[in-house]
Design goal:
The complex is a heterodimer of chains A (221) and B (258).
Chain A: H1 2-17, H2 21-40, H3 44-65, H4 68-77, H5 79-85, H6 90-119, H7 124-151, H8 158-186, H9 191-220
Chain B: H1 2-5, H2 8-15, H3 19-40, H4 53-81, H5 84-116, H6 124-143, H7 149-181, H8 196-246
């Protein structure tokens, strides 16, 4: 576990010391959610109805916006070549970087989501389902996002391109995540939604690093 | 056999002659299919004449998805065996698939207006076709996003494989989402209830679409190979002239590199 922990530590240190990195994604997330009531009107019934969807879409966009942090800097300064040359498999490096990405974007989003739930007038049980869904689903966002981030290394306008690539892949996460809260409001069972959400994250855990590492190798040679 | 035919030089030799017959067969089949669909097939007892849109729409839907699997298979071959022709095949197929998907969406929308009273409903199938369209766009954008063409080709191959793994999950999730949000009342299952008088035109049209795809695919692959050859010749040209200079031309006649 040595090299993985070292890489994870390095990524986290970089994220914290460069300041603003975490705050930026989080600020975007909050602002995107806050803009919606201004756009659609402040009626509590409507906000309750669409609130979970808004928060999930904002979480998706916040994840996409922070994707360039994953590999771009290391690609530019050659650090990625060293990672590829090291004894650690590239897939492992991808997992460590995804873990750091999730800890600095996914987890803060999960942590702040209850407050946003209050802003859109969700009841307590719905807020719980929202936070639990985000906790289960955001790892998949980081992992799938890593594929897009790796594929677009060295491309012209990588940011726009990676969002075009990755947002269709995020569709299932959005559906099950927002669906869990809506289903709870409608009085149905939410277990299946949350289980499927967890299943997507678990399936992405081994598969996405494989694809992302393959993409990184293409970028490096 | 396939490896033998797939050599780029040999491909250029064998793919040229069948192009004209293929194009003629495509035109004839599509003409026959359209005649059968528009003139011979009976109007539906519920949908009236609007049902004829289906003969254009359904084969497009089949091709929309089928071409994506063609791209994924070609990408797999390109990644595993590094076959140059497979990359070219995948890239050539992508705009065709995107076009079929767009035809499917547009004709579906045109059919939906008189039938459902709306241009667009968030029906499960429509939604997953729309997502498929975005997958195509992402693929095409990625192919063209790099200054180094081979890098774009390889990145797009990885993306095609990721997409083909994710596609069933997307379809499943959209089906699930749709059954929750709106009851499946608008779209009755066609399936086995379709009459032979409609099935035959549909089959002919589907065959016409497949022929159209094969023809255009061959043309696009040949064009891509020719473009590559032309670029290679252009790149080689200055050095050849440089060699001629060294062989005895006066030094002030050194050609300017373009």
């Amino acid at each position: 576990m040595g090299p993985y922990r070292a890489l994870l530590r390095r990524e986290l240190l970089l994220a914290f010391r460069q300041g603003g990195e975490i705050g930026l994604a989080l600020g975007f997330f909050v602002l995107a959610v806050v803009l919606f009531p201004l756009g659609v009107g402040p009626e509590p019934e409507m906000l309750r109805r669409i609130g979970a969807g808004i928060i999930w879409v904002a979480a998706l966009l916040a994840a996409v916006l922070s994707l360039d942090r994953l590999f771009a800097a290391d690609y530019a300064d050659g650090g990625l070549d060293l990672l590829a040359l090291s004894a650690m498999p590239l897939e492992g490096a991808v997992i460590a970087k995804c873990a750091a990405h999730w800890l600095t974007t996914g987890l803060p989003v999960v942590a702040i989501s209850p407050f946003l739930g209050i802003l859109v007038d969700l009841d307590r049980a719905s807020i719980g389902r929202l936070a639990l869904g985000l906790l289960l689903g955001t790892p998949a966002l980081s992992l799938l996002g890593a594929i897009a981030a790796a594929l677009t290394l060295g491309a012209r306008r990588p940011g726009v391109l990676s969002s075009l690539i990755v947002l269709p892949l995020y569709v299932p996460v959005l559906i099950f995540g927002a669906g869990a809260v809506d289903m709870g409001i409608a009085g149905g069972g939410v277990r299946a939604h949350l289980l499927l959400l967890g299943a997507i994250s678990l399936a992405a855990l081994p598969l996405a690093p494989l694809a992302a590492a393959a993409a990184l190798r293409q970028a490096l040679d | 056999m396939l490896t033998y035919l797939a050599n780029p030089a040999r491909f250029m030799r064998w793919s040229g002659p069948p192009l004209v017959p293929l194009a003629v067969a495509t035109a004839l089949t599509l003409a026959a299919g359209l005649y059968l669909a528009l003139a011979v097939a009976p109007p539906d007892y519920q949908q009236g004449e609007s049902v004829r849109i289906m003969f254009v729409h359904v084969p497009a839907a089949i091709m929309a998805e089928g071409v994506y699997y063609v791209i994924a298979a070609a990408s797999f071959v390109a990644l595993v065996w590094r076959h140059p022709l497979a990359e070219i095949a995948a890239q050539a197929a992508a705009p065709l698939g995107a076009a079929f998907t767009l035809v499917c969406l547009v004709t579906g929308s045109l059919w939906g207006r008189p039938m459902w009273g709306t241009w667009w409903a968030w029906d499960a199938r429509m939604t997953s076709v729309l997502v498929l369209f975005f997958l195509y766009l992402g693929y095409i954008a990625l192919v063209n996003a790099f200054d180094d063409m081979s890098r774009g080709a390889r990145a797009a191959s990885v993306l095609a494989l990721v997409g083909v793994v994710d596609l069933p999950i997307i379809k499943f999730s959209v089906d699930w989402w749709n059954t929750l949000h709106q009851p499946a009342s608008i779209l009755r299952a066609g399936g086995p209830t379709i009459d032979v008088t409609m099935l035959v035109p549909l089959a002919v049209m589907a065959l016409g679409y497949v022929l159209l795809f094969v023809t255009l695919q061959l043309v696009r692959m040949r064009t891509a190979l020719n473009v590559r050859k032309a670029r290679a010749l252009l790149l080689a040209a200055p050095s050849r002239r440089g060699g001629a200079t060294a062989a005895g031309a006066p030094p002030d006649a050194t050609p300017v590199l373009r």
